[in-house]
């Protein structure tokens, strides 16, 4: 049983038959195939290659926002949010690798590529034959993305790229990446490329040992005179900031959706434990006021955050942006998930702290979501900046 009712009524969360059908199929697959393997891969810090391939071959959820004529599903950011919410109930780490592939590469690449580039790469990533990712963050440039130092120098019919990217999801398992660089190391403009792991000068650096999201590999990518054909330039030289910012918005709402999924699972576990199973002093645990506060506040916070995430997702498209909404949704949902998962640990007591229940893993996983895709401090800065623009008009 779950706090979310999959009724046939179309609403903010399931705006069409396609969305509802997608939710039902992903929910069923995730519960059956992702739940049992999550603990094993978290403890081993290993990536489930076989399961990832099945997302394409069996479930068919790659290319969600790619037009049907280009081999995708032609759906919207709400559909992407549905997938991330449902999968994150069971394995947020594995879902993060899906996000890096589907949002950071597939959606990003599709919106900024030309027909020739799409013909070369789209079928491979939509089928799941190749795994994708994105290279933006660097050892000395995270939130200050324009401080990056990876450079691309034009030499004949190719670009020579040097630099290092840090904390790259799917770095050690991916075959293709959207890579952000500068043509002028001291400039403030960026240029992006689609690159392959087989290129000369490409190598995978240190693999990170992480607190959470352990089933999703995170590594450095190192470029030493890496040669990239000029036809792999995405868009125009010095023109990457626009599509980078556009893609950040769908990234932020899908990260927020992961937080919603984590909270939803925590609430389900809390309700099952306190209402159905655990008793103290001759009463069900849910009869005690202290427990009622934790459970009820968790559910109310989850419900509010979920509504905001879906409302913002419904406003996004390649033609329309919502920077203020995306930052707000990420800020609210990620804080909520940390709070709810911590509440769940407290409600379950010793069981919550131990690995018999998934709560401690979900809590560890939730913390990354307030860091990746722009820290929550950056979200606060962005919200204030957008409000300043609105009120200065």
UniProtKB/TrEMBL annotation:
Functional pathway: Amino-acid degradation; L-valine degradation
Top-rank taxon: Bacteria
Pfam family name, one: Acyl-CoA_dh_M
Residue stretches making up the Acyl-CoA dehydrogenase/oxidase C-terminal domain: 243-385
Annotated Acyl-CoA dehydrogenase/oxidase N-terminal domain residues: 16-129
Reported cofactor(s): FAD
UniProt entry keywords in alphabetical sequence: Branched-chain amino acid catabolism, FAD, Flavoprotein, Oxidoreductase
Gene Ontology molecular function terms on file: 3-methylbutanoyl-CoA dehydrogenase activity; flavin adenine dinucleotide binding
Residue ranges crossing the lipid bilayer per the database entry: none
Coiled-coil ranges (or none): none
BP-aspect Gene Ontology terms: L-leucine catabolic process
Domain Acyl-CoA oxidase/dehydrogenase middle per the UniProt entry, residue ranges: 134-226
Family the UniProt entry places it in: Belongs to the acyl-CoA dehydrogenase family.
Name used for this protein in its record: Isovaleryl-CoA dehydrogenase
Organism: Leptospira ognonensis
